[in-house]
Structure formats: C-alpha cells, structure tokens
C-alpha cells in the first residue's frame, strides 16, 4: 500500500513530496476504525506549526481531510459499523497518509457522511467549513443582525463564511480580488449586501464600509491575510488590507478574526482597539484535533457542516478531482500556494 509523504527541506529548501510504501498493523486499536478512502483533500503543509508542537519526522504524512467507507471497527467502537460512509480530518500526529487506500483512525475524529453528499465535494470543503464555523461561531460569536466583512469572499474559505453568515441572518459585506470574482460574488444567492473591489488600486474600503453601516463600522471582520507594512512589492500582497484599515472599519465591541500567524500591532493600533473595546482572535483550525478537551463540540461542528452541505446551505465551489498518480504534482502546486486546495479521488 502506498501513501504520500513530505520530506522536509534543509535550510529553507523546498520540501519534497514522495510516494512511499506503508502498512497497517494487523490488529485494530480498541476505538479505531479501518476506512477505505474514497477521496482526500490536500491543503498546504504548515511545517513550522508541526515543529512548534513537537512533531518532527523524516517523513510527514500528507493529506488529512478524508472521506471513505468503514471496513472494520475495533472492539470498543460504538459510533460506526462496517459499510458506513464517513468523513473526517486526521489529527496532526496521525501516522497515516490520507492518500493510502486504507487508513486507521480513531472513531472520535469521524462523523457519518450523508448519502447524497459526494466524497470528493466533502473532502475538498471540510477544512474550509471547519475554519468558517470556528471563525464565526467560536471566535466572533455571530448572531442575527450583526454586520460581517469577509475579505476575499470568492476564496473557498471566504465563500463558506458568506454562506454560513447569510444562513444565520447576518448582513454580509465582502471584497473581490478580480473582475471575474467580483461578478461571481454579485451573483451569489443568498446575496451579499455589497461587494467592494480592491483589485483596481483604490483604497475606498473605510468610506464604503462606513457608508454601508451608517458610520458605525462592522461587528466582525474575517481576513485572509493582512499587510503589516504600507508598501508591499508583490501584486498579491497589495490586494490584502493593511492592519490599520481593518481596525478602522471595526465597530464598537467588534471582533477581528485573523489568519495571519505573525501579526504585529503597534501601540497606536492597540490604542484604537482599546477605544473601540474591540478584540482580535487568531484562527487556527488545527486546534480542534490538537486537544481532546472539546472533542464532543468538535464532532458536533463536523456533523453540522456535512448536514448543511447536504442540505445545500453550504455550497462549496466544485474542485476538479486529481487521480492518485497526479497527487505529488497536485500537492507541490498547493504547497507553493499556486492553488489553495486540491482533492484526490482514490
């Protein structure tokens, strides 16, 4: 049986992705489930995060968002039976690559997959759904009547945030990074209140947000990265909002949920946040599988996400599925951030 693994580069060299032979133990653990994988989602590997939490291996398993069918269950498994269709995210320290034909996983990381939901769709979108749920419910305490600003709403994560917020009666504003994405966002149903273009070099974010909110600012901002300096050379960085712009558009008591790991706030930024009694939260979706303290809540979230996908509340953009023999190339593309997400069909 073969799986995809990452050999970390030395001295900032690019990591290498390799196919390696692997095997499973003959006997399942008490609470383990043996799953035949049907589809696996690929996301960028955060090698620094793995190092920070003490996971350092020569070969790091790749591919963690999986959908498949239960083949066998351990003696104390109570949630699943053979032939159940399941979906889940492998924990950070899992020895299995999600691109193996068959994997062993603890039952507490899996939920039932609704019958009419495709394996490819759920494997591609599960991580973004979890991130959106964590940002809006766990961090921002979203409620009906709130106003939300989603940066880069046409991204897979941004789209999940918009759809989840609209479902809960939140007024949604978003930004677009190209003319094509702008048109796509304007045609979304349920519709967003306003799409603000940021690709034409304008810096109208603050006046437009204040106009849309009657001068009050928004209750929640969810970013997809921020600029720490005013002058950025790359075109991609110029599309990101400056940290001061985000703080400026926040209303009193607002919540800023950021994906930026190395955020630096200067004393004037902190002063402005203090005056607004606003808060900053860091979004790390890995935290759910890094600790068992909130395992029940995590499973509830996963179950709710797949049910909302099945019901059409969350409608992720379809991802083209790669065959297994193209998995290495697909993962290299994702790791270089040339593509944000890939899914492999086994």
UniProtKB/TrEMBL annotation:
Gene3D superfamilies, alphabetized: Medium-chain alcohol dehydrogenases, catalytic domain (3.90.180.10), NAD(P)-binding Rossmann-like Domain (3.40.50.720)
CDD domains given in the database record: enoyl_red
Superkingdom: Eukaryota
Pfam families in UniProt: ADH_N, ADH_zinc_N_2
Positions of the Enoyl reductase (ER) domain: 9-344
Single GO molecular function: oxidoreductase activity
Designated name of the protein: Quinone oxidoreductase-like protein 1 isoform X2
Phylogenetic lineage: Eukaryota, Metazoa, Chordata, Craniata, Vertebrata
Gene responsible for this protein: cryzl1
């Amino acid at each position: 049986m073969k799986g995809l693994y990452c050999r970390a580069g030395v001295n900032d060299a690019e990591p290498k992705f390799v196919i390696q032979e692997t095997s499973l133990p003959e006997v399942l653990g008490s609470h383990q489930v043996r799953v035949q994988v049907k589809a696996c989602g690929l996301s960028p590997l955060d090698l620094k995060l793995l190092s920070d939490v003490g996971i350092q291996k020569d070969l790091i398993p790749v591919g963690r968002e999986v959908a498949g069918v239960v083949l066998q269950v351990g003696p104390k498994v109570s949630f699943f039976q053979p032939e159940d269709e399941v979906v889940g995210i492998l924990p950070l320290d899992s020895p299995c690559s999600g691109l193996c034909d068959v994997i062993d996983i603890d039952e507490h990381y899996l939920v039932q997959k609704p019958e009419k939901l495709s394996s490819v769709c759920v494997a591609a979108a599960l991580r973004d759904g979890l991130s959106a749920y964590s940002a809006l419910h766990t961090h921002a305490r979203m409620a009906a009547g709130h106003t939300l600003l989603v940066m880069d709403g046409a991204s897979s994560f941004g789209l999940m945030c918009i759809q989840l917020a609209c479902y809960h009666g939140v007024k949604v504003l978003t930004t677009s990074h190209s003319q094509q994405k702008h048109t796509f966002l304007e045609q979304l149903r349920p519709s967003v209140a306003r799409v603000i273009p940021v690709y034409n070099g304008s810096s109208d974010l603050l006046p437009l947000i204040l106009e849309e909110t009657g001068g009050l600012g928004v209750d929640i901002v969810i970013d997809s990265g921020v600029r720490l300096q005013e002058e950025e050379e790359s075109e991609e960085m110029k599309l990101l909002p400056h940290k001061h712009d985000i703080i400026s558009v926040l209303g009193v008591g607002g919540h800023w949920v950021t994906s930026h790991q190395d955020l630096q706030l200067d004393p004037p930024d902190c002063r402005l946040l203090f005056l607004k009694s606003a808060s900053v939260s860091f979004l790390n979706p890995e935290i759910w599988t890094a600790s068992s303290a909130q395992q029940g809540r995590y499973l509830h979230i996963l179950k709710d996400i797949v049910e909302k996908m099945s019901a059409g509340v969350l409608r992720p953009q379809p991802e083209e599925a790669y065959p297994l023999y193209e998995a290495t190339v697909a993962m290299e593309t994702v790791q270089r951030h040339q593509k944000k997400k890939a899914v492999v069909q086994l």
